[in-house]
Write a structure and sequence with these properties.
The protein is of the alpha+beta class. 15% of the residues lie in helices and 29% in strands. The protein is built from 8 helices and 25 strands. A hairpin with a 5-residue loop joins β14 and β15. α2 crosses α3. The radius of gyration is 29 Å and the shape is elongated. It starts with a strand and ends with a strand.
Length: 539
């Protein structure tokens, strides 16, 4: 066993010592430092002109030279060179994978928690939050030319890491993952593994490929006990020659929501495409951005390829690096869900540059989250975030962070994958109001403190026939504005427009003369604002 950094890598040494398997450590620093200085590494003494090489090419070269050395002294060592293995964890897990792909003398590769640049596919990782993407991995590790494919250009990358894994075939590969560490992009790693596995299957040797992705609080060390028997199975079969051992291992936590064929259905069917997935009976809510309660920081503009022929866009010159506290910065989407579960918020956006791909998002009185959609080519659906919700009424707030952000449509769904085309018909449509309204920038309050000290309650009863009660709470004496609006944003009535003392208050709203439908009520106090939806039943 060649262990990167340590004789057994980060795998338990007794797996090997108990079976008289020799172990040797690969000291990668003798070839190239972890964060190389290009042209000034040990390998450059042999190859002074190869200053452009990435570390993983250099380290793989070093592993091969170590194997050369073992061959030179094979007559003096009781080592079976036909059953060599290599392992490493984290960045060394990537190193093991590259070495196993490039040197056919390695019979078994065990890549542990290798993350982005290892088992994970760059294309898939680009769609996930908080993970190592191509644009955020170390430039020291790869050739600089690879980074031209960062961001929205990743789809043009002429290769990906399911193919790196497939280079190990027909030899054995076992991939270990740990989803506890989001940065490792294990969902991407799983999708990539499922794609690579098809190569072994087509060769009729699927027992030579396996993966086990299991949550563990520790990264690399100490090694989780639950993974040990699985590693032992691959070691027994491909290092010790026990052909009766079962290595049909495909452990992962993604069965309920990840569909790996989303990325591979097009294989053998011509040009690449993403399938339109059957969204089944998933609960989904659809909203046109320009038909919701649009704050004055946004303009509504026309576009024939937008869902309703129009969209909302942040006004020029507006950038909000702090979470907003005023309603003008926000588009509000009141909604109601039927289940207690995780729902995903998708937006159909048009963000051609890094100057206009940012927003703030929250549900109800939570803290705003900072979201980047990254670049798009025209209108595309992007996953904003997932939220664990209780059944009932909620309010989605989307606020601008960068000027020029264009939002066409919102989908709130149980389904894990984004919609296609323009999606389904929205809950309601409208004639877009393209009037440009003035916006006065208000210094943002600390959102957490605002959420704690001010409160606007849900009206009761709701839905209502003739009258309902609305409650609100203030931390101090202040002027309050409480108004009711139609679904088109027209002011219906003002329920409060005076100074109120600190504490809890209620006002009554009579709706006898209004037609049935959805209405909104908005509270403004100091620099705090909140909005909720109420439903008036038709008589």
């Amino acid at each position: 066993m060649i262990g990167i950094g340590f004789p057994s890598g980060f795998l338990p040494a007794d797996i090997f010592t108990s079976s008289d398997i020799a172990q040797i450590a690969f000291d990668y620093t003798q070839v190239m430092a972890h964060t190389q200085t290009r042209g000034h590494e040990p390998i450059n003494k042999l190859y002074p002109d190869l200053t452009y090489m990435g570390a993983y090419s250099a380290w793989s070269w070093g592993v091969s030279r170590l194997i050369d050395g073992l061959e030179l002294i094979s007559g003096d060592l009781p080592i079976d060179l036909e059953h060599l293995a290599i392992t490493g964890c984290s960045f060394a897990g990537k190193m093991a994978l590259f070495a196993g792909a490039f040197d056919e003398r390695i019979a078994l590769t065990i890549a542990q928690e290798s993350g982005g640049g290892g088992a994970a596919a760059w294309r898939v990782s680009e769609t996930l939050d908080g993970v190592e993407r191509l644009g955020s991995t170390s430039h020291a590790w790869f050739m600089e030319s690879m980074f031209q494919f960062a961001g929205r250009h990743v789809a043009k990358l002429p290769h990906d890491h399911h193919e790196l894994m497939a280079m190990v075939a027909p030899r054995a590969l076992f991939v270990l993952g740990n989803p506890t560490y989001v940065w490792l992009a294990e969902e991407s790693g799983y999708t990539s593994c499922e794609a690579a596995k098809r190569v072994w299957e087509n060769f009729g040797i699927e027992d030579r490929f396996g993966f086990s992705i299991v949550n563990d609080p520790n990264h690399c060390f100490p090694f989780p006990d639950i993974q040990k028997p699985k590693v032992e199975a691959f070691v027994d079969k491909f290092m010790l020659g026990d052909t009766l051992v079962n290595t049909d291992i495909a452990t992962h936590p993604y069965s309920d929501y990840v569909i790996p064929t989303y990325w591979t259905e097009w294989w053998g069917n011509g040009d690449p495409y993403f399938p339109v997935l059957d969204r089944g009976e998933s609960e989904e809510l659809w909203y046109e951005a320009e038909c919701s309660n649009v704050g004055s920081a946004w303009n509504v503009r026309l576009d024939t390829v937008a869902s309703n022929g129009s969209y909302a866009v942040v006004k020029p010159g507006l950038n909000n690096t702090k979470a907003p506290a005023d309603s003008g910065a926000v588009i509000y989407f009141p909604f109601n869900v039927a289940l207690n579960k995780t729902y995903y918020v998708y937006g159909r956006v048009n963000t051609p540059t890094y100057d206009n791909d940012q927003l703030w998002i929250k549900i109800d009185d939570e803290i705003y989250k900072y979201i980047r959609t990254y670049l798009t080519e025209g209108w595309e659906w992007k996953k904003f975030a997932g939220f664990t919700l209780s059944a009932g009424e909620h309010t989605l707030s989307i606020a601008f962070r960068s000027e020029g952000f264009k939002l066409d449509k919102i989908c709130i769904s149980e389904f894990y994958y984004p919609p296609g085309e323009k999606g389904e018909l929205a809950e309601f449509s409208c004639v877009p109001d393209t009037t440009t309204k003035p916006y006065v920038v208000v210094t943002a309050l600390d959102n957490e403190s605002a959420g704690v000290t001010y409160f606007l309650g849900q009206n009761f009863p709701n839905p209502l026939n003739d009258k309902t009660t609305i409650g609100f709470e203030l931390p101090r004496n202040t002027n309050v504005s409480l108004k009711v609006y139609s679904i088109l944003g027209e002011e219906i009535t003002e329920l409060a427009g005076k100074e109120y003392p600190a504490g809890k208050h209620t006002v009554e709203f009579e709706a006898r003369n209004l037609s049935g439908g959805i209405y909104f009520y908005m509270l403004k106090a100091d620099r705090f604002s909140a909005i909720r939806k109420m439903i008036i039943l038709a008589e």
